Amino acid sequence: MTAPQPSAVARHYRQGDLRRKIDEALDRLYPGHATLTTDDLHGVDEFHTGGHAATRELTDHLELKAGLRVLDVGSGLGGPARHLAQHAGADVTGVDLTEEYVDVARWLTDRVGLTGRARFEQGDVTALPFARASFDRAWMLHVGMNIEDKARLFTEISRVLTGEGLFIVYDVMLLGDPALVRYPLPWASEPEHSFLARPQEYRSLLRKAGFDVVAEHDHRLQAVQSLRNAGGGHHPTSTPHNPASGDTPPAPISVAMGSDASTKISKVLQNIEEDLLAPTELICRLR
Hints:
Elements: H1 6-13, H2 18-29, H3 42-45, H4 51-61, E1 69-73, H5 79-88, E2 91-96, H6 99-111, E3 118-122, E4 135-141, H7 150-160, E5 161-174, H8 199-208, E6 211-218, H9 220-230, H10 254-257, H11 261-273, E7 277-286
Parallel strand pairs: 1-2, 1-4, 2-3, 4-5
Antiparallel strand pairs: 5-7, 6-7
Helix pairs in contact: 4-5, 7-8, 9-11
Pfam family, one: Methyltransf_11
Organism: Streptomyces hyaluromycini
GO molecular function: methyltransferase activity
């Protein structure tokens, strides 16, 4: 298998008019609301399995306190990073390969008043543009499936963390026969651009990079429920949200995932239910 060039990964995610689509989705979700909060964005800026509920759980595992420096590896549209800045008082830097995602992340961060507390840079996460020991914590949420050289990725993260730094991996990992995995998926339309690995491969590479894996959590049950909800026909273009109702806004996940979002969601769900894939969390500490 030939690894895709970074541009191939970026092309998979790039839409060209994502900011406009998100702006329209937010106008439909919150008509007449010029001022938004991080909580209002959950439906458009977090599209890892489990969504914001998973973000909150992972945040608890980061053992944060105000002022800690956190690296968000493959930060996407910035939802998890903004959550850390807003609700945990962390100083967050996100890095993502896709320039459009970085631009939208900065725009959304400015829109909710968090500029300066959550920053975003375009870059290759296997060659991080930071000095040694620049961060106290790091996490990556559904990133490794796009990266073939995970050994280099983990070595880079180890380099930029302080001693005994905490690192959380939350990736979709391979359990069954890779030949049976169905595509398209949110991170790849075809297997040639997907770099799924088994949990034991992750553990081995993390140990070689200087980490001890101190806990592991299989998130299949939560993922199945969230994916069923995401594929349940809620779209930002059809149902305005009433903020006064106190309910959770519909998840317009299709905005970030493109026109074939429902197919991608159904394929992920099918692969998980057939025990081919599992969203898995590894909590790691530097030795």
